[in-house]
Write a structure and sequence with these properties.
mainly alpha
């Protein structure tokens, strides 16, 4: 596989990862919305009819953790994570590219440790047949497994991003490094808002 074919292959992987992550974030958003609606319904029933279905706080906690783990990959692919750019904007382009690459490596190392920790927790819950100390008595390995798979997927996405950013840095394709791991410019933020506004106007 020559260099050009290798880069095209990585770009296709990133496109597919972006497509799947976009779908995942819609599901995660729906899960969060369903959790909020269930809590609202439970509160209304409790106030008006005097009883509760129960489990709203527990289920919402699961939904929140799962939603976050599955949203991380899309947020990173879209460069939506927060970084302080006061000095960044004043640095040379090549140095910025190196900083972007180092930031991506640092994120990858951190998430790898988090994923390892989550794996240990999930395996412990599975082997001990642990259940939640609540009225529902939920087997903890079920929500933890879904949470863990989201983190594993994020590790996969980060690995592909880091591989592509590394090849771009080595070949001197600095704009591609910024596109993958850099901070969004004000123009990019404005363009994204304009596209979102146009899409909202078309749908309504």
């Amino acid at each position: 596989m020559n260099t050009t074919t290798h880069l095209r292959f990585l770009d296709r992987l990133l496109q597919r990862a972006n497509t799947f992550s976009r779908l995942a974030i819609w599901v995660a958003g729906a899960l969060t919305l369903a959790s909020a609606l269930y809590i609202t319904f439970d509160v209304i029933v409790r106030k008006t009819l005097g009883f509760s279905f129960g489990g709203s706080d527990e289920l919402s906690g699961y939904a929140f953790a799962i939603s976050i783990s599955w949203a991380l990959s899309f947020a990173t692919l879209q460069r939506a994570n927060i970084r302080i750019d006061t000095l960044y904007q004043k640095l040379p382009t090549r140095l910025c590219a190196v900083i972007d690459w180092v930031a991506l490596v640092g994120l990858g190392i951190f998430i790898a440790y988090v994923t390892k920790y989550a794996t240990n927790i999930t395996l412990a819950s599975w082997t001990r047949n642990a259940t939640a100390n609540t009225t529902l008595g939920t087997p903890l390995w079920i929500p933890q497994s879904i949470w863990l798979v989201g983190l594993i997927w994020f590790c996969v996405v980060l690995a592909v991003m880091l591989l592509r950013a590394t090849t771009a840095l080595i070949t001197g394709d600095l704009p591609r490094v910024r596109q993958l791991a850099g901070i969004r410019s004000l123009q990019e933020e404005a363009d994204a808002e304009a596209v979102a506004g146009q899409r909202f106007a078309e749908e309504n």
